[in-house]
Design goal:
It contains two helices and four strands. It has about 100 residues and is α+β, with helices and mostly antiparallel strands. The longest helix is centred in the C-terminal third of the chain and has 24 residues, at about 75-95.
Length: about 100
């Protein structure tokens, strides 16, 4: 699975990219139909409490799946986003298996 990263208003982080890629690869092993992922890390300066945003869009057969999280650090946001994507993928897999 191809993973593309974009860092908006923040510096590029190799550690964060590696951690995210590792978690997305685990998803790719569970759900073989994944094609690619677009990962966006953004910083919202207006939000003092959290403001660390992670958006992930997955390409797969059918409509794309998208999830976003806003937490106080990027690791928490990424973990929450991937959990949300996993829930959506389980629903999608059920639809695939009924046909």
């Amino acid at each position: 699975m191809t993973v593309n990263f974009q860092y908006v208003n923040i510096d590029t982080s190799e550690t964060l990219s590696a951690l995210t890629t590792e978690k997305l690869e685990k998803l790719a092993h569970k759900f073989e139909f994944l094609i690619s992922a677009q990962v966006y890390f953004k910083h919202d300066e207006k939000d003092n409490e959290s403001g660390k945003i992670c958006n992930i869009e997955l390409s797969l057969p059918g409509p794309r799946i998208f999830a976003t999280s806003n937490k106080k650090n990027y690791e928490m946001a990424m973990t929450e986003t991937i959990k949300d994507l996993e829930r959506q993928l389980k629903k999608r897999k059920e639809v695939f298996s009924t046909h």
